[in-house]
Amino acid sequence: MSRTTLALAGLSVAGLALTGCVSTAPAPDTGEGGPISVTASDDACELGATEAAAGTISFDITNTGSTVTEFYLYATGGRIMGEVENIGPGLSRQLIVEVPDGGVYETACKPGMVGDGIRGAFTVTGSAQRSVDTDTRLAEATAGYARYVASQVEALVPRTQEFTDAVKAGDVAGAQALYPVARTYWERIEPVAESFGDLDPRIDGRDDGEPGVEFTGFHRLERDLWQDGLQPDSAAVADRLMADITELAGRVPTVELTPLSLANGAKELLDEVATGKITGEENRYSHTDLWDFRANVDGSRGAVAALRPVIDERDPELGALLDERFAAVDALLEDYRDGDGFVLYTALTPDDVRAMSDAVDALGEPVSQVAGVVSA
Amino acid sequence: MTLSRRRLLGAGAAAVGMGALGAACGAPAATPVPDGVVPFRGEHQAGIVTPAQDRLHFVSLDVVTADRAEVADLLRRWTAAAERMTAGAETTPGGATGGNPNSPPDDTGEALGLPPAALTLTFGVGASLFAKLGLDPSLVPPALAALPPFRGDQLDPALSGGDLCVQACSDDPQVAVHAVRNLVRMGFGVTAVRWSQLGFGRTSSTSTSQATPRNLFGFKDGTHNVKAEDPDDLREQVWVAPGDGPAWLDGGTYLVARRIRMHVEIWDRTSLAEQETIIGRTKGVGAPLGGTAEFDLADYAAVDGTGEPRIAQNAHIRLASAQALGGVKILRRGYNFVDGSDGQGHLDAGLFFVAFMRDPQAQFVPMQRALADADVLMEYIEHTGSAVFACPAGLGGGGYWGQSLLEA
């Protein structure tokens, strides 16, 4: 939980903003040459075609690998045009995505659902008939970010289920391995989750020793798993966490997103990194802070990327600077990758922490300018 | 010149000693300058012979990009903001509150309503900058070479060195901090703070218009400092002359900074007589031992009734004197500091030594070597930080900090 109470300005709990531009339901006949096949194995991501006309594009993804995978279509700046997560081995899923503008895009399969995945260029030709004004772009931005949030919640629920199941089964090692994975999906959308003032402290509160405040949620289980050992009420705390996450998933679609709330959320996620993760305060027992760091940056980029067409329209230099600074943080974090995750905070030297702090400062300044640009 | 940020409340009061300013800066202003404003542009940078202000915020920064154009762009933006801030204005017009309410303000705002307070911003480059930006090695001034180790040094790399520096001096501490903070903020992504130091009381006078202040040992410091009114000393000891080194630094100077921790608790248990012997001056009026007034010339040949030198052979003022060093002088401009406490019940206090000179190797090095080897004061102090910067000449109209180097 952030110590600064959340000021996701304009992020009120009302109104439905999750518009369905992307569907994973059975495909209607697109009448545009049929779906593009995607064969996703453990080490390859083969597309039946790497070019399509602007408009509705469908992908049929088949996981021929041995691990759960994901498929993404990205636009400039890492903006997610569409994605399918949780494709188990041997299963097929379909992605239908609206791509109104021609240009160079990027596809990615992510075996194991981690990292940058296996990338490939994808060209969209022509331009779908539409009149694009700023209001349309802003509406598309919030809709795009709503898709991003929905996709994260879709993964947060089962990952938290696995984590809490392991806690309840007394599987400490298993729960320890699942803890940072489940938190990743939480941390990516933390500003949205924090807009529920009652849920956030229950799910992500820290042990501040404040009298009369019940300590529950991720960090309570973290303390049990890494420091105190499982307690008589650990299972009950796990059930409570799962119930809270389930409630969160039900309430997220009611959040009314605005371009300003996206921009402020992107900034707040970096504030979280600067004040909580780089300092090692967030996960004081498990020291898995770099997982949260990575997730906060992902979430920040998700929000900025959704706004990217508006940013490019109004301040093209800012978009390029954001790309450069996000890339610098990415490159730095990759140095600390350990398998599917990251080294522990306790393995970092003061110089390591200093380099991270510099990179986040450098990114935070241009991200703080986004709100002004999109609200101008 | 706009004064929109600060309404110049109390500007008259802040202008003490400013009458000497035009002469002090060596470049009398063509037009009247508002009270409390030290001209930003001139033959030499302000903040060197400017009568020492009461407060300091010094910052050393590392450049975090190898892109020279990015650095030049930042230096242009810094120069514009610095010129505005020294004139008492916000970093940009309306920068604190006049912008888009959904954007963070350009100016951080804590100096709104404060007078210009004689703010000066002095810029320098460190030796580490050249290789980082791929500048021609012939541009590195030989005198900018690293200082040699001195006996007793306890230098912390995190408090030493740096690619760039900005010295902010002002009669109002918040005005100095505001200036550094805003420049640091503008630099994110291009520069990163390496270390910074606050100073709360000047320890030198740089003009005959100023009384000699005291350091935290309680002694007057800088009685025989190089002063703004000594044109010969300034020319011979402070300003880099054509032919000294690469031309981009002509008219500039070198800044040596040393963070000197003073073990004040130990000093305070030392008798008055011992303190005066160590320094070589009386604590009260600051007269050299054997003399009666502060500005009496020290008589290093005098002996007492037992035949001992009246001013000890290892007295601080003897070791540091021009007489003992073959005529070498420096322009000192240091500040007292107390950075909280050290966790062992002692103040983390000392002197942030800042001095300007024409050649650190020929001036600071022999002086510091003499002190490090023999000065009894070394038992009470330790040097914990060190840096040398080359400060280019002052800017003419339109020029920016570092331009003479980057466009050399």
From TrEMBL, chain A:
Keywords of this entry: Lipoprotein, Signal
Places the protein is found: Periplasm
EfeO-type cupredoxin-like domain sequence ranges: 17-124
CDD domains listed in its UniProt record: Imelysin-like_EfeO
Pfam family, one: Peptidase_M75
Primary residence: periplasm
Signal peptide region: 1-27
InterPro entries assigned to the protein according to its UniProt record, in alphabetical order: EfeM/EfeO_iron_uptake (IPR050894), EfeO_Cupredoxin (IPR028096), Imelysin-like (IPR018976), Imelysin-like_EfeO/Algp7 (IPR034981), Imelysin_sf (IPR038352), Iron_uptake_EfeM/EfeO (IPR053377)
Highest taxon above the source species: Bacteria
Record NCBIfam families: EfeO (NF041757)
Stored PANTHER family: IRON UPTAKE SYSTEM COMPONENT EFEO
Family that this chain belongs to: Belongs to the EfeM/EfeO family.
Name of the molecule in the record: Lipoprotein
Phylogenetic lineage: Bacteria, Bacillati, Actinomycetota, Actinomycetes, Pseudonocardiales
Gene: ycdO
TrEMBL record, chain B:
EC code(s) of this entry: 1.11.1.-
Protein's name in the database: Deferrochelatase
Reactions performed catalytically: heme b + 2 H(+) = protoporphyrin IX + Fe(2+)
Cofactor details (free text): Binds 1 heme b (iron(II)-protoporphyrin IX) group non-covalently per subunit.
Keyword Signal in annotation: yes
Principal localisation: other
Any GO CC annotation of this UniProt entry: cytosol
Function: Involved in the recovery of exogenous heme iron. Extracts iron from heme while preserving the protoporphyrin ring intact.
Location in or out of the cell: Cell envelope
Keyword Metal-binding: yes
Gene Ontology biological process terms in this record: iron import into cell
Source taxon at top rank: Bacteria
PROSITE patterns, per database record: DYP_PEROXIDASE, PROKAR_LIPOPROTEIN, TAT
Family note: Belongs to the DyP-type peroxidase family.
Keywords attached to this entry: Heme, Iron, Lyase, Metal-binding, Oxidoreductase, Peroxidase, Signal
Cofactor(s) annotated in UniProt: heme b
Residues covered by region (Disordered): 88-112
Pfam families: Dyp_perox_C (PF20628), Dyp_perox_N (PF04261)
GO molecular function: ferrochelatase activity; heme binding; metal ion binding; peroxidase activity
Residue ranges occupied by any Dyp-type peroxidase C-terminal domain in the UniProt entry: 212-394
Domain Dyp-type peroxidase N-terminal per the UniProt entry, residue ranges: 45-200
Listed InterPro entries: Dimeric_a/b-barrel, Dyp_perox_C, Dyp_perox_N, Dyp_peroxidase, EfeB/EfeN, TAT_signal
